[in-house]
Amino acid sequence: MGNFQSSPPPPSPKVLPHEWRNLPWGNKMRDLQIVKDYQPFKEDIQLRFMLYGPVGAGKSSFINSVDSVLRDKITHRAAADSLYGGSFTTQYRGYKIQKEPGTHYPFVFNDIMGLERDAGKGVCVEDIKLAMKGHVKDGYKFNPVSPISEGNQHYNRDPSLSDRVHVLVCIIPGNTAGLQNDDNPSQLLTEDFEKELREVRLAARDMGIPEIAILTRIYLTCPEVGKDIQNVYKSKYLKKKIEEVSGRMGFPQNCIFPVKNYHSEIDTNDDTDTLILSALRGMIESGEDFVNDL
User: Fold this and answer.
1) Residue ranges of domains in the chain
2) Neighbours of 35 (CB within 10 A)
3) Residue 280, C-beta contacts closer than 8 angstroms, at least 6 positions apart
4) Quick check: 258 and 275 in contact, CB under 8 A?
5) pLDDT digits (tens, 9 = 90+) for 257-281
């Protein structure tokens, strides 16, 4: 009898044979070093990234995930909630990430209250616009029914370039971003949501602020990504998802970054870190270009 060799399992119909976007798996340390070496061309500027999006999309979790990658340990500095009963973030707050004792990376993340379906809940779109212009100080408690007034102690009347937002980051939950399929028929981004998101985008355009979209919960969007995160750029579902988000919300496809936030892990993972670093590099490059063009 000849030697019996089992044939390889057939490819999943949900996974393409080749990546539709190249990502240098296994080169985490190279990307990490690029971020560590980054210094703004204008020395007196620290880049400001402001995150916005629907309640429960993973804004605070993304900040924690970036913090975890850069500090090589799981962190929980930005308060996040797994119940999604309403926005867990109620105040405007900036997060710096420690680099070495006494020093920080030259960028800051601003977390805001999430957008909600119902009127009178969630962040006011006008507050997002004012924050982009640098008029909102850390510690401001969002009022869902009215934006900050000039008489508020947290209103910044004369914002500097550092106070302004340099990159607007839209956090979109990948498993509920509107593309319905057999595995996940739910839909979170309704027409009302999209109108608010579009209003914010148009305001950013008028201010010249670059935008990045982060697609979270990718392991729930496609089961094959849940099995192996390196399938992210082979996934047919994620490819369609990014195409749909681009078509419905206007983000260029190369400005949409799928990531997996840390949520149950107790240690970091190189492949998860690679996706997060890819998004972070895109944010840094966009912010640097914006600041230098002013």
Assistant:
1) 48-179+189-293
2) 18
3) 35, 66, 69
4) yes
5) 999 999 889 999 999 999 999 999 9
Overall pTM surpassing 0.70 (yes/no): yes
Structure tokens at 126: 């006008």
Look at the block and give the residue holding tokens 């962190």.
Answer: 75
Nearest 5°: CA angle at 75, between 287 and 84? 85
Is 128 in contact with 84 (CB distance < 8 Å)? no
Tens digit of each residue's pLDDT (9 = 90 or more) over 91-142: 999 999 999 888 999 999 999 988 877 666 788 999 999 999 999 999 999 9
Identify which of 282, 279, 258, 277 has the alpha carbon closest to the alpha carbon of residue 69.
Answer: 277
Query: Following DSSP, what letter does each residue of 209-254 receive, concatenated?
Result: --EEEEEE-HHHH-HHHHH-GGGTTTBHHHHHHHHHHHHHH---GG
Written as one letter, the residue type at 141 is: K
CA atoms of 52 and 203, how far apart (whole Å): 13
Distance (Å, rounded) from C-alpha 286 to C-alpha 284? 5
Cα–Cα distances (Å) from 113 to 47, 48, 58, 190, 222, in that order, read 21, 17, 11, 18, 28
Fold of 48-179+189-293: Rossmann fold (3.40.50)
